[in-house]
Structure formats: C-alpha cells, structure tokens
Amino acid sequence: MPLQGFLDIDIGDPTRYSAELAAYKLASNFLSAVGGQYGLNGEACDLGEDDTSTLMEAFAADPTWSSRGAASTVKPTPIRAGRIILDLFADEAPKAVENFRCLLTGERGIGKGSNKPLHYKGCAFHRIVHGFCCQGGDIVRGDGSGGDSIYGGKFNDEKGGQKRKHAAAGVLSMANGGKNTNTSQFFLTLGPAAQCDGKHVVLGCVSQGLEILERIDLEAASTDGKPRVLVTISDCGVL
C-alpha cells in the first residue's frame, strides 16, 4: 500500500460563503418562528416568489429580527468540492515526498527561514492554467513568489522523480524556478504536460478525486493562469 495524502478542496470564497450561509440561516429561523402567522411553511429556499416577498417584508418590518443582520432565502451552494487522495512515490522521490508529507500534516511547525507555518492548510492555488495545471503550495507569500521546505529552503531535484512522466491529468509534481530549486510549491496536472518531463520532480498521482480537478479546470482555470474562482486547500493530511 503506497503512502497516501489528501487535500480537501474548496472552490469559492469562504468568507462570502459564510456570510451567505448566515443570511440563509437567519431567514430559515425567521420562517420557522413566524411563518405560521402568514401561512408559510417548508424550507426557505423552496418558497415561491410571492411567499418570499411576504416573508422578507415581514422580516424587514420586525426590528427584533432585522437587527440581527441580512437575511436571504437563497440557499448558497457549498464550496467544499471534495477530497483529492494522492499516492506518493516515496521510492522515486523520498526527499520531495517527505517534505510534502510534513507540509500536509504541519508537524514541523514554523519554518526557520520564512517564519511561516510549514503547512498547506488554508493555502490557495495561485496559478490555474486551463488544460495544463493548478499550482499551489506557496506557504510564504501565497502568490507564487515564495516557498519554504522542511529542509530550510530550496532542495535538490531527485532523478527518480524526474524520470516519471506528466502523461495525464492528476500527476503531482514539484514546481520550481529552475534546477534544484524545489520548495513547498507543487502542481497537479489538468491534462498531459510533456513539456514538464525531465524538468520537474514527479512525487505522486491522484488515486481518487480526478473529478475535482475537472471542476477546477472548468470553473477556475484561465488561459493566463489567473484563477477565475478562489480554490483553497481547506484541510490536508495523510491517510
């Protein structure tokens, strides 16, 4: 059984989602409390246009409830896309895999050079190129200009990992700025990427969750790499 890690992926702005969910819960609670007075029942999101107007007018006219914040009968779409499970190639790229594993668990604490948590949790994918890759892991600056590792900065390439091919979607590979410049940044291929062969250390592949990569490619990718939607690692670890 190979060493496995996981990434729980959110697609969307968590701050906006939290606000929208709070507004929906407030409308739902108001409906439960006073809906019977207006002949309204069921779920707030299932109300027709006229019933929605009745509910929201009643909410606005009730200072006890309206003072609690904005309300909405629109139920927000959950941003949790699901879990990507990765098989890690510890035999071919032991140094890269150990770095990645520790960054999944956060067990190494704070980086000595960056003074940032050595942990992927909460990290966004800053570059998502349609049909090519989604790149993340900049735990220092979050924009692709930084990175750190459990080794105190950049570490060398591993030939075993470089021999692996970027032949399909779901390949996990180290991002770099040239030879022997690996840090915390990595990418997942969204399709075949032969141009990366021999230049990047492959350290794993997706064993479950390719459909999440398809969603990322469809909803967040762009031709220039700037994400159209925020994609975040909401949680991560090893199995």
How does this structure look, described?
The chain is of the alpha+beta class. Helix content is 27%, strand content 21%. The protein has six helices and eight strands. It has helices spanning 14-34, 49-61, 63-66, 94-105, 159-162, 210-219, and strands spanning 3-11, 80-88, 125-129, 133-136, 171-174, 186-189, 202-208, 231-238. An eight-stranded antiparallel sheet has the order 3-4-6-5-7-2-1-8. Strand 3 (125-129) and strand 4 (133-136) form a beta hairpin. The termini are close together. The mean pLDDT is 97.
Quick summary:
The chain is α+β, with helices and mostly antiparallel strands. The protein is built from six helices and eight strands.
Keywords:
6 helices, 8 strands, 239 residues, 8-stranded antiparallel beta sheet, alpha+beta, single chain
